Amino acid sequence: MKTLLKNAREQKGLKTREVAQLLGIDQALISKFESGTRKPTRDQVIKLASLLQIDLETIMVAWLKEKILYEIGQDEFALKALLVAEQEIRYQSNPSKKKLSSTLQKILDEIDILKIKLDGFRQFDSYRIAQALELEYTFESNRIEGNTMTLRETDLVINEGLTISGKSMREHLEVINHQEAIAFIKDLMQRNSSINEREVLSIHNLILRGIQPEDAGRYRKVQVMIQGSSHMPPQPFLVAKEMEDFFIWYETNKSSLHPIVLAAEMHERLVTIHPFIDGNGRTSRLVMNLILLQNGYIIANIKGDYESRMHYYQTLETAQTKNNKEDFLLFIALIEKESLERYINIIGQ
Question: Which Gene3D superfamilies match (predicted)?
Answer without folding.
Answer: Fido-like domain, lambda repressor-like DNA-binding domains
